[in-house]
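Quick one: structure for this chain?
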Amino acid sequence: MAPLGIRFYRGQQFPEIYQQQLLVAQHGSWNRTIPHGYRIALLTFKWGKVVSEQVFAEGWLGENGKAIGRPVDILELDDGSLLVSDDLAGVIYKITYHGL
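Got it. Here's what it folds into:
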């Protein structure tokens, strides 16, 4: 699993728990029996150290274990939304937050 794109979230659109935390585009494994990655992970920091890792966005790995997408990089727009590039599907996804 290759962590290709990394981005500290500096926007205001997502809740405070995401602000100043690290988003990582995990491109996905290519040679593992059990595939790993194919998602965006959120690494939470406290006092300069990683204290947790959780899934921020997923869905690029099909239920059959075959990749349907491979996240590459993350960009933040001025409005705080995110763009995620996918080099397998050849698309760019926009992720926004609208609350509950």
